[in-house]
Specification:
This protein has five helices and four strands; from the N terminus they run αβαββαααβ. With 144 residues, the protein is α/β, with parallel strands linked by helices. Helix 1 runs parallel beside helix 5 and helix 4 packs antiparallel against helix 5.
Length: 144
């Protein structure tokens, strides 16, 4: 799926790496063209499929974007949801949406990653023995 060129993919990957530098949280970006169900259900499906629920502290975050259908979601795992206030991801989604509306898909995703990293740092600061538990590359899905 050619949604992003190599430079854009590297920019997103670098944003994931930077966001994870100061937190034990694990962040993934998942992209597909269309979303055939509720965007939250679809994001939850891929969260599980990408083994994001298997992190040690259950502190994974998935940024899911269906580019053709123009839908997206930001969801966190049980460890995050236990400690954060309701509507925790709303500001992240609002800032991402501003970029998306302007046609800046990559900028919106990078912004979402930056804010997610800042949020996670407060609740899950980086520790010396932390390891990168999940890949930092974009997960491109074909809509199964």
């Amino acid at each position: 799926m050619a949604v992003f060129n190599d430079e854009e993919q590297q920019r997103i990957r670098t944003a994931v790496e930077n966001a994870e530098k100061h937190t034990s949280g694990q962040i993934r970006v998942c992209i597909e063209k269309t979303c055939s169900e509720s965007v939250l259900d679809r994001a939850a499906k891929y969260f599980h499929q990408l083994d994001m629920h298997k992190t040690k502290l259950r502190n994974g975050v998935l940024i899911y974007v269906a580019v053709v259908d123009r839908k997206f979601a930001v969801i966190g795992d049980a460890g995050i949801n236990k400690v954060v206030p309701p509507n925790f991801w709303d500001d992240t989604k609002d800032d991402m949406l501003e970029h998306f509306k302007a046609g800046n898909l990559v900028e919106g995703i990078v912004t979402g990653l930056e804010i997610t990293g800042e949020h996670l740092q407060k609740y899950f600061p980086h520790k010396k023995d932390d390891s990168n538990e999940l890949p930092d590359d974009i997960a491109f899905m074909d809509g199964n």
